[in-house]
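Reverse transcriptase domain-containing protein
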Amino acid sequence: MQHYGFPPKFIAIIQQLYENSTCRVIHKGKLSDPFAVRTGVRQGCLFSPTIFLIDIAWIMRRTTSNSNTGVQWTFARQLEDLDFVDNISLLSHKQQQAQTKLTRLAEEAAMTGLTINIKKTEVMRVNTKKEAPLQLHGECITESDRFT
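Structure:
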């Protein structure tokens, strides 16, 4: 939040909302002992969606800054990614650019405690030859011919 110019007092208030958070789970009709919650946003909290989107915006800005490897959007601009909440599409013309961007996204996300779910991650090639598969943490990304 500080990267976006939020006042320190506001940031401190949000941090206090998350300090010493605990949770309990009901399993088979029994309530668990409390356990600490160290990551994520509070379920049902009005600030949670906004906090999450601020985090995603920061990650994407850092992932694509100075990249200039997207698709031509206007004469002077390139479109680097398409995002909707936690669904992200990285756009690139070349295999190596896509791999670099994916690796950078994973690194930036990890800095905030987020991870990319490789089981929900796919590559879609359009008007290009098939090359080596993209990889994330040593695992090959599934290829698809449809975007959903």
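The CA atoms of residues 89 and 102 lie 10 Å apart.
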